């Protein structure tokens, strides 16, 4: 049975324009993506409310475009994407990461739709296919309905029918040279099950509370109390142990903004310093769905030329081109169902409960959450109130 399902779709559209005049390679890219993730997140939370987005989806697709950028455009992208190493390291690292992902749990797919007759640089095609496992397809953007249906069918298939009709036919036009689509789909069971959700209080603020469905369990998992963040953290693994959900719960009901500011330059704090505890966990059952145009965020981070007539993407296409839109749609469903723990495992848990210290983790006020593959942030968000 499904316990957590997240889906992300990123679409990057390129338009023709006429110009007027850590230790290992993989860890370096992981750190870049995580830092980029937090920088984007700090901009997204300005609008308030729940937040959900998929940083790896954005970073991998923009990194691919960066490899086709030149001059000042490439320089701006390199800084914004936190790339502090050679292009060779970037390509080899993403090849390792994308090959290392367990596709039965997390599936990340890139498809590139180019306009019929537009010449794509051979080196870019080679890089896309050999390092990013991309698939190219020529389309006629003047046939709006057919092309939109083609793209939407691909997205719907890759996201297991979760995202439908994302690309609108009226958003397509003949000036488009290329559309890059990245679909990411994550689905997994918890390593242990939660009890059936029951109603409980959730404090939206110190003075306001609402009723939500709370999921409860008491099992051994990774726990830490962070004085740096003034928070409690739990890391709950999924059936595939390479993946986990990290929840950062401020000690104060109104402490979310304070924690977010502290994490801005200390994102690695969420990965280290845990110890095994028996933790009585209570978290809300929730769903979040978002649709974001990342263009303003990326401009804020310094990618300005990419979206102007001065964009230099000469390593990608022969024709002058700029990026028109960067859209992301993301969905998450967190519920109590998971893998039933076998009797032998339950016995082991009961045995260990006498050895490990016990902790209580009640997420009854706003918190942050991360879905990670090892130390790579796949999804990042905040839950501040029920929809």
From TrEMBL:
InterPro entries, sorted: Serpin_CS (IPR023795), Serpin_dom (IPR023796), Serpin_fam (IPR000215), Serpin_sf (IPR036186), Serpin_sf_1 (IPR042178), Serpin_sf_2 (IPR042185)
GO molecular function: serine-type endopeptidase inhibitor activity
Protein's UniProt keywords contain Zinc: no
GO cellular component, one term: extracellular space
Signal as UniProt keyword: yes
Signal peptide residues on this chain, from the entry's feature table: 1-20
Keywords: Protease inhibitor, Serine protease inhibitor, Signal
Span of domain Serpin: 38-386
Protein family membership: Belongs to the serpin family.
PANTHER family, sorted: GH10112P-RELATED (PTHR11461:SF211), SERINE PROTEASE INHIBITOR, SERPIN (PTHR11461)
Protein name, entry field: Serpin domain-containing protein
Protein species of origin: Clastoptera arizonana
């Amino acid at each position: 049975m499904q316990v957590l399902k997240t889906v992300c779709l990123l679409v990057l559209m390129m338009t023709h324009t006429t110009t007027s005049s850590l230790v290992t390679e993989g860890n370096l890219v992981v750190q870049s993506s995580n830092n980029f993730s937090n920088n984007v997140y700090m901009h997204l939370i300005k609008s308030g409310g729940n937040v959900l987005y998929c940083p790896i989806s954005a970073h991998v697709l923009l990194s691919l475009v960066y490899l086709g950028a030149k001059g000042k455009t490439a320089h701006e992208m390199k800084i914004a994407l936190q790339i502090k190493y050679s292009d060779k390291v970037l390509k080899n690292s993403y090849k390792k990461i994308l090959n290392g992902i367990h596709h039965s749990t997390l599936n990340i797919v890139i498809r590139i739709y180019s306009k019929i007759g537009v010449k794509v640089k051979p080196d870019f095609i080679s890089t896309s296919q050999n390092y990013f496992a991309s698939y190219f397809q020529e389309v006629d953007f003047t046939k709006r309905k057919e092309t939109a249906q083609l793209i939407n069918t691909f997205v719907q298939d890759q996201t297991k029918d979760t995202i439908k009709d994302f690309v609108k036919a009226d958003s397509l036009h003949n000036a488009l040279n290329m559309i890059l689509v990245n679909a990411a789909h994550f689905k997994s069971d918890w390593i242990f099950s939660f009890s059936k959700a029951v109603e409980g209080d959730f404090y939206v603020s110190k003075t306001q509370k609402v009723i939500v469905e709370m999921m409860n369990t008491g099992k051994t998992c990774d726990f830490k109390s962070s004085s740096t963040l003034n928070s409690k953290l739990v890391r709950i693994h999924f059936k595939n142990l390479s993946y986990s959900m990290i929840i950062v719960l401020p000690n104060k009901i109104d402490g979310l903004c304070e924690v977010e500011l502290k994490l801005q330059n200390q994102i690695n704090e969420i990965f280290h310093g845990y110890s095994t505890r028996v933790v009585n966990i209570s978290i809300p059952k929730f769903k979040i769905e978002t649709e974001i145009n990342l263009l303003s965020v990326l401009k804020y981070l310094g990618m300005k030329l990419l979206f102007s007539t001065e964009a230099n993407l000469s390593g990608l296409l022969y024709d002058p081109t700029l990026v028109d839109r960067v859209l992301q749609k993301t969905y998450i469903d967190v519920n109590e169902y998971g893998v039933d723990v076998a009797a032998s495992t339950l016995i082991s848990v009961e045995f260990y409960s006498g050895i490990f210290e016990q902790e209580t983790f009640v997420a009854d006020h706003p918190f942050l959450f991360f879905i990670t593959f090892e130390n790579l942030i796949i999804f990042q968000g905040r839950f501040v109130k029920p929809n």
